[in-house]
Amino acid sequence: MNSFDEEFHEYTSDGVKLPSVTEICDCIGGADRAKLPEQILRYAADRGTRVHEYCSLICLGIDIEEIDGDCADYVSAFLEWFNTYKPKVLYSELQMFMKNLGFAGTCDLVCEINNEIYLIDFKTPASVDKVSLSAQLAGYDIGLLNKSIIAKKYFYLQLKPNAYIFKECLPDFKLWDCCKYIYEKKNKKEKIENE
C-alpha cells in the first residue's frame, strides 16, 4: 500500500518511509536558499506548492474558479506556455513509489509535444539550480522507466510573474548516483548515532 502525506511531504510504501527525489538531491544546491530568512522560504515554498496545484488542475482540464492573488501571475505564465506548446498530457503530478529502488517522487508533468514524450519539472524560484535539477530529472527518469514510460526530452518550465522560461536540462545519472550514495551514507550514520 502506497501513501503520500502532503503535510510532511512523506512517501510510504508498505509501511516503509521512502525518501523523495528532492530529499535525495538536497546534498547539492541550496546555497542561495540558506541565505534567506526561514519565513521567506516557507512563504515561497507554500506559493510554489499552490502554483503547482493550479498547473496540475489546468493539465487535467479542470476549471479553476478562483486563483490566489499571489499565484495569479505565475498561473498566467503557465497558461501562456500551455496554449503555446499545446501538450498532450499523459500524467500530471505522477506519484511514483519505487520501494525496490529505495525512493519515491512526483513528476510534475509527463506529456507529448510534437509526438515526443517530455518529462517537465516546474520551478517557481527566481533562479533555477540546473545542477540539482539535472540530478532530480535523472531520479524521475529512473522512476518513469520503472513504470515502462520512456521520456525523450527533459525540460524545466520556470514560471515567473507573467513570463516563463522553457529550457532543456539533461538528466545527470552519475550525479544522481552520487546524491543517492551520500543520502544513504548520511542516513546510515544518523541511524547508528541514534541507537
Summarize the structure.
This protein is of the alpha+beta class and 195 residues long. Helices cover 43% and strands 28% of the residues. The strands form 2 sheets. The protein has a 5-stranded mixed sheet with strand order 4-5-6-7-8, sandwiched between helices. Strands 1-2-3 form a 3-stranded antiparallel sheet, with no helix packed on it.
Strands ordered across the widest β-sheet: 4-5-6-7-8
The helix/strand class is alpha+beta
In the CATH hierarchy, the third-tier topology is known as Trna Endonuclease, Chain: A, domain 1
How many helices? The count is 6
Assigned CATH class: Alpha Beta
pLDDT averaged over residues:
92
What proportion of the residues is helical, as a percent range? 40-55%
Strand fraction:
25-35%
Ranges where pLDDT stays below 50 over 5 or more residues in a row are none
> How does the major sheet shape up?
5 strands, mixed
Number of domains: 1
User: What's the number of extended β-strand segments?
Assistant: 8
The coarse silhouette is: globular
Q: Determine Rg (CA atoms, Å).
A: 17 Å
CATH structural architecture: 3-Layer(aba) Sandwich
Listing every helix as H and every strand as E from the N terminus to the C terminus, the arrangement reads EEEHHHHEEEHEEH
Terminal-residue CA separation: 28 Å
